[in-house]
Amino acid sequence: MATTAVAPQVAPRLAQPHLTLQTLPIGADTLAIRSQDWDRDRFDIEFALENGTTYNSFLIRGEKVALIDTSHEKFRQLYLDCLQGILDPAQIDYLVVSHTEPDHSGLVGDLLELAPQMTVVASKVAVQFLEDLVHRPFQRLVVKQGDRLDLGKGHVLEFISAPNLHWPDTILTYDHGTQILYTCDVFGMHYCDDFAWDEHPHLLQADFKLYYDCLMGPNARSVLSALKRMEALPPIAAIATGHGPLLRHHLSDWVEHYRTWSLEQAKAERMVAVFYLSGYGKAEALAQAIARGIQKTGIQVELADLRLVDAHEVRELMSLAAGVVIGMPPQSGPEAATTQVLLKTLLASAHSKQGFGLFESGGEDDESVYLCRNTLQEIGAKEVFAPILLKQPAGEALLQLAEEAGTDLGQWLTRDRSIQQMKALDADLDRALGRISNGLYIITARKGQATSAMLASWVAQASADPPGISIAVAKDRAIESFLQVGDTFVLNVLQEGHYQPLMRHFLKRFPPGADRFAGIKTYPAANGSPILADALAYLECRVVSRLETSDHWVVYSTLEAGRVSSPEGLTAIHHRKVGNHY
Ligand code: FEO
């Protein structure tokens, strides 16, 4: 690949100190425009963003000029000024829209104002979405797998269809001239830095994996199909992603990670099919949150967009699924005729061994969850979580509820496995392991409006300078989502002789979204998490790293503050007989 070694130009942080733009050449006639969002703390709703994010856009100047993706609307002024400083928008011939989520397409309307002559190049589904998004006529070129577009000067663009990665409308674009593959969300990560490339993979690994888990993991089969299509391309010299650093130094590692993780997902023995209609209400966000909750239990998820599947695929998924989740589609509107048929097919394919959960999508006119629920119950399927209704809390709290509902469904499907695992341990070893004793603690955490808490015992000091602790948290615990690298929480130490009421309260099985702190006296720590007023001591913690074991995350955190309320008090100790449970 021809690259020009020019130092990246970083625009000074002017009016908005946390938004900057970086432009750099990445290949012949090719410029990256990276919108750097340094401290965005929450992306969509999916996951914490301790390292900010970037929205990457690319300009290819052959004889024809193509722009690949735009930016988030928060960069409107910065991005449009920057672009107009590079060229007159009237020179842009094509705008390739890799997919239509607003973080990349938020400025398509603005750009069409400046460059009404340009042709929007996108998948058929993306063009349909864009019509609703930009509310103005535009020239379009619908592309499908294998289509090519010659920009001149050797820049022949070839399009790869990648539905469900992670939106239904996604395409990838390969430039035969520079051998750069433009992938938008795929292979991305939420990571903001002036390093435009992946020179330092150890800094990126955790964010790359979290991003895969949240956005790509639920579509593992689609990831494998897209990888197969990529294999048919000539050599790929670099992957230009839509978020985070561009990839060229460790290309085969990044691609191999996607393959390995997706193969692992695809071979999981049980699967839950999650049906929803993209672009309708909050269906997509809720489906993803539920999927993430299910995956925490090691159960595979297949996200099925009713916009993309046909009756045959619905029947096939239902025949394979041990569980089913349905986001209510609309009763009226342009999609209703299709989705009603698919919903009927889906219900007719359900059977009595399946567990199910339903959620309202919160569009204009959802089908009734109750009619759907009656049908499934009559078949004998087991309702594992109560219908998620949109009159329930909004924002982060609603997504937390959805994730916890997903985890409940996953745990219901793995209930036999957990019992078998307990029985499988050698009895002598089990008793010996049980002689390892720990204290009793309550972990409490807050993220925005969402809070969580968990009784913990596998806690140990792990470093002295800086002071740090490790906590082993089962992968399927709700609080696991609050313990990502960079997150903060409080470790409350329970007191010998006084711990029973708190222990009993936090040992209860809470329904999804339930307030763990109802009836419990708390006050906020400096990091925002609740301190239990009746605890012997508390420590304010920040997660630094996580080690994955077969069934737990070992979370290492450094300590930022702490206090003992009763200097004479002793820590409650948890003595066990066996090691196969807490
Ligand atoms: Fe980065 Fe799916 O948008």
Mind explaining what this structure looks like?
The protein has 15 helices and 31 strands. The chain is of the alpha/beta class. The strands form 7 sheets. Strands 1-2-3-6-7-8-9-10 form an 8-stranded mixed beta sheet. Strands 23-22-26-29-30-25-24 form a 7-stranded antiparallel beta sheet.
Topology readout:
Elements lengths: L8 E2 L8 E9 L2 E8 L4 E2 L3 E2 L4 E9 L3 E4 L7 H11 L7 E3 L5 H4 L2 H7 L4 E4 L1 H11 L4 E4 L5 E3 L5 E6 L9 E5 L4 E5 L16 H16 L3 H12 L6 E4 L9 H17 L3 E6 L6 H13 L4 E6 L5 H10 L2 E5 L8 H14 L5 E5 L9 H11 L2 E7 L6 H19 L1 H10 L2 H7 L4 E2 L1 E7 L2 E7 L2 E6 L2 E8 L13 E6 L6 H8 L14 E3 L5 E3 L4 E12 L3 E13 L8 E2 L8
Parallel strand pairs: 7-8, 8-9, 9-10, 14-15, 16-17, 16-18, 18-19, 19-20
Antiparallel strand pairs: 1-2, 2-3, 3-6, 4-5, 6-7, 11-12, 12-13, 13-14, 21-31, 22-23, 22-26, 24-25, 25-30, 26-29, 27-28, 29-30
Bound molecules: MU-OXO-diiron.
Features:
single chain; 582 residues; alpha/beta; eight-stranded mixed β-sheet; seven-stranded antiparallel β-sheet; binds MU-OXO-diiron
Which shape, going by the Cα principal axes?
globular
| Main sheet attributes: strand count, strand direction, barrel closure | 8 strands, mixed
Read across the widest sheet, the strand sequence of neighbours is 1-2-3-6-7-8-9-10
Number of strands: 31
* Helix residue percentage: 25-40%
- Ligands, ions, cofactors: MU-OXO-diiron
CA-CA gap between termini = 55 Å
Strand content: 25-35%
Q: Average pLDDT across residues?
A: 89
How many H/I helices? Answer: 15
Question: Using only CA atoms, what is the Rg?
Answer: 25 Å
Query: Uncertain segments of ≥5 residues (pLDDT<50)?
Result: 1-17, 42-46
Which structural class matches the secondary elements?
Answer: alpha/beta
